[in-house]
Amino acid sequence: MKVNETSVHFAQASTSDRSPLQQHLYLLGIKLRLQRQNMGNFFQQLKRHPTALLGAIVVILYILMAIFAPLLVPHDPFTGILGNRILPPKWYEGGKPEYVLGCDELGRDLLSRIIYGARVSISVGLISVAVSTVIGVTTGIAAGYYRGWFDEIFSRFADLLLAFPFLIFALGVMVATGPGFWNLIFALCFKGWVEFFRLARGETLSEKTKEYVEAAKASGQGHLTIMLSEIMPNIIHSVIVLGTLRMGSLIITEASLSFLGLGVGTRIPAWGSMISSGRQYMMNAWWISTLPGMALLLLVLSINLLGEGLRDILDPRLKID
Amino acid sequence: MRLARILERILVAIPVMLGVAIVVFFFMRLSPGDPVDLMMGEAGSVSPREMEALAREFRLDEPLHMQLYHFLTDLLRGDLGNSFVKRKPVARLVREHLPATIELAFGALIISLVIAIPIGIISAVKQHSILDRVSMAGAFLGISMPAFWMGIVLILVFSVFWHVFPSHGRLPFAVGLKTITGFYTIDSILTGNWSALASTLKHLFLPSLTLGAGTAATVARMTRSSMLEVLRQDYIVLARAKGLTEYAVVVKHALRNALIPTVTIVALQIGTFLGGNMIVETVFGWPGLGRLVVDAIQRRDFPLVQGAVIVYALTFVAANLLADIIYTFVNPKIEL
Amino acid sequence: MLEIKNLSTHFPTERGLVKAVNNVSLSLAKGEILGLVGESGCGKSMTLLSILRLVPFPGKIVGGEVTFRGCNLLEKKPAEMRTLRGQDIAMVFQDPMTTLNPVFRVGEQIGESLRIHGAMGKESFRRKYGENRKIAERKRVLELMREVGIPSAEERYLEYPHQFSGGMQQRALIAIALSCNPKLLLADEPTTALDVTIQAQILSLLEQINKEHGTGIILVTHDLGVAAEFCQRIAVMYAGSLVEIGPTDVVIEDPQHPYTIGLLRSIPKITGKKEKIKPIFGNVPDLAGLAGGCPFAPRCDFVEDACYSRDIPMRQITDNHQVRCLNSQGQNV
Amino acid sequence: MAAAEPLVRTEGLTKYFTSRRSLVAKLVARQKDRLIKAVDDVNLAIYPGETLGLVGESGCGKTTLGRTLIKLYEPTSGEIYYRNQLVHEMRGKELTAFRKEAQIIFQNPYASLNPRKTVRDIISVPLRTRGLREPRIIEEEILNLLHRVGLSPRHIDSYPHQFSGGQRQRIGVARALALQPNFIVADEPVSALDVSVQAQIINLLEELQEEYQLTYLFITHDLSVVHYISDRIAVMYLGHIVETAPTTTLFSRPLHPYTQALLSAIPSVDKSFRRKRIILEGTVPTPLDPPPGCRFHTRCFAKLGDICTRVTPSLVEVEKNHFVACHHFE
Amino acid sequence: GPADGVEEEEAKTLIVGLAQSVLTLDPAMHRDRTSETVIRNMFDGLVTRTPSMDIVPEIAESYTQLSPTEWEFKIREGITFHNGDPLTADDVEFTFMRILTEGAVDGQSSPRKGLLGSLLKVEKTDDYTVLFTFEEPWPIFLRMLPHQQIVPKNYIEEHGSEYFAENPVGAGPFKLVSAALDEEIVMERFDDYYGGSPEIPPVGPAHVDTAIFQIIPETSTRIAALQAGDVHIISNVPTHMVDQLEADPNIAVKTCTGTNFFSVSLDMEVYEPFKDVRVRKALNHAVDVDEIIATVMDGLAIRCPGPCIPGSFGYNDAITGYDYDLEKAKELLAEAGYPNGEGLSFVLDTQDAHKDTAEAIAQYIEETGIDVSVRVWDWGVLKPLLDEGGERAAVFSSWGNSTMEPHDLFEPKFVSKLDDVLGRGNYSRYSNPEFDELFFETTVLIDDNERIANYKKLQEILFEDAPVIFVYTPMVVEACSTQVERWEPSPDGRINLHRVGLKE
Ligand SMILES: Nc1ncnc2c1ncn2[C@@H]1O[C@H](COP(=O)(O)OP(=O)(O)OP(=O)(O)O)[C@@H](O)[C@H]1O
Ligand SMILES: Nc1ncnc2c1ncn2[C@@H]1O[C@H](COP(=O)(O)OP(=O)(O)OP(=O)(O)O)[C@@H](O)[C@H]1O
Ligand SMILES: [Mg+2]
Ligand SMILES: [Mg+2]
User: What's the rounded Cα separation, in Å, for the pair B314 and D239?
Assistant: First the structure.
């Protein structure tokens, strides 16, 4: 009981003197205190959150699907038969049984493309979140720990990037560098790290005043060790939650950029470009855009459910015990 | 004191704005593509003299640092330059398009509030109920759907099949609204043109819904979780111990506290709404700043992109400041 | 005035059933101060909240009787219960920082009870504070604020809780509790969050209220010293159950329950010569899934097999001294 | 005792925190950075083997003083000597050596242990600072320490949340002991514990002191605890030391009005100790702008007059080893 | 009231949904088809085009070519601008000199100068006669002339160009009511309209009271708007929607030939193997253009067998195109030293809008064993790459040829890249001295028969050299509500509402 009480008070105290942006992060679920938690009972906790578990399962299935895509696809996802242009799904009139979900505007098997598309969407999500996290967390911890000019420079830079409208920014990057997978990742990460930076910085600021950090200092640990072994493990869970929540929105951003004509843009199928190039067919061949849309929706939904669940699981305040 | 703080926020914003200006300047100049060449299109002939003349006119023949110098000195004088393509002062273009964007942003804001806050409250009060689960599931759907896709679906359903909302645009000319401020809702109220108001609101609805859906979802979830947290607080127990009815406890004592974070996040969302609506603007043929910028980026209309991004950044900073000010009003603990 | 019989409040949790209040029987005479002592988590707060029927979810009052001035509160309708709360029975909470609503002005919060219970419409109030309810309410609130010792009440009336120091906040809470002249005041560790000198201020304030208005007070505390100095009777709780209850002097000087004894021995005494303190070994138990028998048995020096095997009843030692222990007699210190 | 060389000594030790004003506030409203005078001009000596109790109300600077002594904070001004060496000038090897000598035990057993680390991780940090490298030796040493503080070896790979408050505090003690220190600042080590557990820790600390000849600075606001454990007591009020005296002297003849009020306010089960309560008016002022002159004058019941509000009294020795800072005794 | 004198009860409003924003309403200040489409409803030119692409007088009454470099135009009398000013030779002279003179538009220069070739000056000879003088003969002058609209001299001199751009005054069938260029442009009938070109009946004022252009960038929305009845005419209908729209009883789909020449330019400098004509021919044989048209374009494109759009001036119909023959393609490749396409691999760049066809082309080429991948670019990024060389080989792109004159296509696309005028679109970096010589010879010819003969020759050369894969010209596909009368799309994409009516 005492544990929870102190953490609640702490959270309150820190809530009130946060800037709105930190509040935002906070309410996205991001102020987590992990005092009763280790990985062992993490999975047990996951079991008690059926939605999160479901999310996790779906995400894992998707990842497997992406990895084994070449083995799973019934047809060549890259080239189609022009004669099969906008072929409806098999259960529709005019559909062919071997093309379960029908074909797209170039007669390519939709199912195969959706399966393959998982690769791009998932790697876009994973890689850009991973890169943003690594950059944001290292700079954030350093800024929060050392303060001073380092903090000042990075915080101002972060402000600057935040003031840039994200889509315009990404669009600008894509226009400048041209479409392509890595360019897309670059565009997404260039600003994506800022949120992680702010989170890590804010958490470090509060973590730094914790007595166990003082204790480590008193026992003669160096700054780097304190950052790595005392502070980092305590903020990483917040980061994971933010990461999952952000992953969904980054995958959607990829789709949005495709809509503006600047996605991954090769013949490699990506859900974003499938949805956006298929949207013209919405009225006569809804499946071309809608089915990849469903695939995306399900993935983002699962990631969000997982993220939300993680937030609850990792936040002892939300637990009944 | 309060004024000093506001002043300070503004002062701090200046270097940020300057940074934004410089970044967007280099961004545009260093990205490939020649505005003059693009302007000439893929037809007809173009004389090299003509291209040179235009390049000179646009000051593109000068070295980069001189261009930057001109840009910054003009900027400090409040001059955003002339659009290459539209041949108009950028400031005017922005002024013409900003009201549409702001109106859409506010539409989205209001829709997300009207939907999200009650849902959040009810979900929290009736935690684990069917309603809670359904609305939270809906909220998740809201944030998991690409906006353009949702927009098209809404158009198909509400305009094509049911004919209840118009498919595009801001206000048909036939309504005959006299514009004063550029905000059609305000203008129609000012001129007492109620049919224009009705039409404006109808046009505003689908785009606002599309733009606001994601935020509504976020706000609903936030309201719910902050409400849940507030309901656990000691002062709620005290309110009950005073003998208040459950309704008074929730609406009077809990709600205002639960809204403290929500309101600030919502105010902050204005910035996102302003900067993130080009997709909605494109889908709904909404004549706002977002579409203007996307177009300008594609045409390498440097001054227009620069000007618009600076205005975006300004509105973002202003929205942030506004968020902070609102925050001080809902939360007595904070002195700005 | 108040008679609690076999009150039980349980929390179903993932770890098992938490019997936060387990068969507690108490009574309070008019104008009496009863101290309820015990360690953290032993169910003191839940006992108070059960009286008001404000046990938080998922807790439930599963049995017993709470008779206040002749009627059983547990059988009252919710609306009746509401009129009682704040008016006849008021509560002062442990942590003033979190108990005042941060977004409302202090004056307004103090006046709220008056408004809810329509106090300003009552004849006695009307006569004293005038007809205009708004003005009357303000007058009454200012009076209350002065009464509990909040200086410059006029200004403080318009301030927000965070502008108050801890001690002031606690006073404001007391003012809220006193606003309708309750017959019974439930004070849940009202001084725990405060400094010694401030604690002394608050406690003497409570003492004064008790004397002047004849308000009955249940004072919850974990500090035996506080209970010893301020209460006429002391009830000791351990793991959800009442283990000993009796007049203060008797409980302090002639404790019967091994837990009470241990508690007294582990407090350093401020007397001339240094006496070695003797801690109780072991830890405060987890309330979830407690086995039957005496919950103190694992830490008890005098434990017997029987202690584990059955529920131990309360035993009358003397007239008003009761103990829940099998072999309490002869265990005099 | 007093004849011996002090182990730790401070001269005019001052620690201010700055609450920064914004640039504009400075320029426009001409406001200066505000100073939180947490510790102000403190002269204190702690002798080897003794327990010095430090009491005072919340926010009066006890923790700050304790942390500054062991160089967790840099002092704003003044000197700290440890065995006649200047503490705040220590760097590198010297500092490591000092870290081994001086340790701290924190108030909050929940916040002072890193929740992500096992007991082994937590205790091995100071052991490595001590120069132990071999994992086997480290493990042996950890088990030793656990045994010493009354925890069983099976606890070695548990996480803090698996312990009760008292057990956690034992881990904190073990961590401090791991460096084999001479001097321990115990910052309210029992305040967060239940009454029945508090006694266990106090006894443990006493035993350890005997066993290792430790010197304690024992910070607390609980006067009965401080009475029990300390040899000498220093009373702090708003950053100043207002009175120091051997325990028995202080309890029998408190001189400073604040000390008197403090002692009278202790609720005690012990009837013989109860005195007439002195109820102080008002609350402790904030260290942001402490009152001028004697800092206690705003609440003092024995004010002399003008001098109290103008002149800061200095600590004078009124009788042997009994110092007080009050104009009554100037 | 309307021209036919019949009392109309309700004012008729015609709404057109456009895909792109209008950039300006000043006819001199853009190079943009959409802007021109809207502007030409408010401004008339000296000449105009019939739906079958013939040039007929509009404001001009007649014209004569006095010498290879001189043209004289007689202007119709009694034409007034929307503000009531009469249109005279002064206005015509002003219009053209405004474009020719650098900095003449409030200090800015018109980007339309290039559309006037080597025009030196325009002088009025009397109130209703003007003389155009060229530096050198420019045979496509008349065909280029419809792109220029006459603006009022006095009005602009009085108010300045900036004001004019916002309050345009022309001599066209509609006058402006209000303009929000990214939203909607509202025009009402100009009752004193002179009636337009007598060669295109019916002549007279416009039939609808109000004409509105609304900008609806998103295709799906545009179609939805038509289906919902929010607009009457929409441009840029995707070909695959045609069937479905035709099935709607309230909607009619209209098509006509287009003027965009689509081809895959094979860069011979950047990608060595393309130097070999056999490879280029092989690629032409490998792609089944007819099948692509039938499927990807839903039959709504016309194959360009050679380097010209069928129906253009001097079109050589002896050229029937490279037939689709995979074997032949493989043979040619083998001859060139690339059996089964081994050793050949390149990227095909394109823009988002054309990527379907590009992908289809790539699929066909891959059949020969060549490894092709498609990249989609923002045009702004791709263009400099095409100019500089860079890491690329082939590009699928279009070139506008609204004059339907080979000159206008050959000069930018196939003449050796000499300067920005010449070879501006020569992404193949094709350079054939024989071709160049004959081309320049032809440019100064005046006699149409000679020109036709030369153009046919030029087409043969290009066909044999195959610097590009010849693909198609997409048809203009527009759709309108069945309420709309007398409206036909025109090959240059112009939507002229002058004669369009609206049924009940
Ligand atoms: N929401 C809850 N869910 C489950 N168990 C609860 C809940 N609230 C309280 N309890 C249990 O009820 C028991 C009694 O709690 P209570 O608050 O009455 O203790 P207390 O004696 O007031 O302690 P403290 O001195 O810490 O205030 C606790 O041990 C706790 O485990
Ligand atoms: N890092 C810091 N930055 C700014 N102010 C501080 C800091 N640490 C302490 N203070 C301030 O210094 C004053 C003294 O604090 P300190 O923690 O030393 O008091 P304390 O006597 O230990 O109080 P407590 O009994 O509550 O632990 C307080 O007003 C506190 O707010
Ligand atoms: Mg309690
Ligand atoms: Mg402290």
Answer: 46
